[in-house]
Amino acid sequence: MRVAMIGTGYVGLVSGACFADFGHTVTCVDKDESKIERLKKGEIPIFEPGLDALVEKNVREERLFFTTEAKDAIADADAVFIAVGTPSRRGDGHADLSYVYAAAEEIAGLMDGFTVVVTKSTVPVGTGDEVEAIIRKARPDGDFAVVSNPEFLREGAAIKDFKIPDRVVVGTDDERAREVMRQLYRPLFINETPILFTERRTSELIKYAANAFLAVKITFINEMADLCEKVGANVQEVSRGIGLDGRIGSKFLHAGPGYGGSCFPKDTLALTKTANDYGSPVRIVDTVVEVNAARKKAMAQKVIDAMGGDVSGKTIAVLGLAFKQNTDDMRDAPSLDVVPALQAAGAKIRAYDPEAMEEAAKLLSDVEYCDSAYHAIEKADALVFVTEWDQFRALDLDRIKAGLNTDIVVDLRNLYEPEYMAERGFTYTSIGRPQA
């Protein structure tokens, strides 16, 4: 089938490359000329494991194309995906749908013949109705169907999530559109992937409900971690003990500095705004948003306390800046709260992240960015782990001990065991676990 993907951000680029790898002909459209030129040269603007090779392969085999000109791509397409950004709107927290609506207007003027317009962007309930109204107003005689097809991609594992998903959700009542979507996802039927067809509004809400529920799990275990510290329990054992219950499950029960990234912060906020607009507040999610924001700010105080209550004039080595491993995404990363708070308290920051330093430099000033973990810890007065990169899990602790001015390590990701760190001579602070 022929697919047009409007937007070459994280979702659009990954989805376009994966659809092309399924055998479809995909044209990714973006108004950013420099981004399109980079993609044509094989330069991937984001870090996602395996994406560069996937793009290169499908460009070489002439199934994946990039352009700034939407006309031919949309006119020839069986399905046009809207995969543009929906950031939180300044001032009120609602999802900014201006890019979605602009894409709908452009599609209306260029589609030719029956066209399935698919909203891949994360959008509030009822957005598909507005997209349909925009296109219908511009093309009263248009033959089209608007479908909701939310993405469930984890940064760092997006290709696997697209090709081997837990489920695919499609929201439409139009049988012709359902058939087009079946053909697009036909390769997944081989693996018996559940394809859930729903009403369009239901599909839109499924995306928000899923992300909100996962955010609740993260926030719950973080609060349990705080309680564990007070009563002398171990949050990792609590997580395992409850996660083995099939009704609960072990995923997203890892205590840390709070969630961040491109989805959970904006999606939980957008859900609470939508719920309030409809007079049906989601109080649990309201609380999760508040608790998570407070937690990220509290992590700096945890570091300060570990350093005796005063970091003025001290140098702190921060390992990890991205909101999670295997990505360069800095959106709502805990480091954006931790680092400025430590600086405000008088600390100097030396930092290292395997992929995110270029993005971090746009957001964090007066930071010395280093070329390795060991470079960052040289003559520092404390080491702080903020992101759980695999390469931080087996560092040479003797080298770290020799490089630091002190023995203070604050581990906001529980990468090491308290007893082991104590045996190696470190004053070690972690999340929700008794100190050895």
Describe this protein's structure:
It contains 18 helices and 14 strands. With 436 residues, the chain is of the alpha/beta class. It has 3 domains: 2-198, 3-Layer(aba) Sandwich (Rossmann fold), CATH 3.40.50.720; 208-288, N-(1-d-carboxylethyl)-l-norvaline Dehydrogenase, domain 2 (Orthogonal Bundle); 297-429, Rossmann fold (3-Layer(aba) Sandwich). Helix 13 (283-306) packs across helix 14 (335-344). The chain is elongated, with a radius of gyration of 23 Å. The mean pLDDT is 96.
How would you concisely characterize the structure shown here?
The chain has 436 residues and is of the alpha/beta class. The protein folds into 3 domains: 2-198, 3-Layer(aba) Sandwich (Rossmann fold), CATH 3.40.50; 208-288, N-(1-d-carboxylethyl)-l-norvaline Dehydrogenase, domain 2; 297-429, NAD(P)-binding Rossmann-like Domain (Rossmann fold, 3-Layer(aba) Sandwich), CATH 3.40.50.720.
Feature tags:
about 425 residues, alpha/beta, Rossmann fold, N-(1-d-carboxylethyl)-l-norvaline Dehydrogenase, domain 2, 3 domains, six-stranded parallel beta sheet
Q: What amount of the residues lies in strands? A: 5-15%
The side-by-side strand order for the widest beta sheet comes to 3-2-1-4-5-6
Main sheet: strands, sense, barrel: 6 strands, parallel
Main CATH class of the largest domain: Alpha Beta
User: Judging by the overall fold, what is the CATH architecture of the largest domain?
Assistant: 3-Layer(aba) Sandwich
CATH fourth-tier homologous superfamily of the largest domain: NAD(P)-binding Rossmann-like Domain
Structure class: alpha/beta
The CATH topology label of the largest domain is Rossmann fold
Termini separation: 60 Å
Q: Report the principal-axis shape.
A: elongated
Helix segment count?
18
Helix content: 40-55%
Q: Residue-averaged pLDDT, rounded?
A: 96
Radius of gyration over C-alpha positions, nearest whole angstrom: 23 Å
How many beta-strand elements?
14
How many domains, as an integer? 3
Low-confidence stretches: none
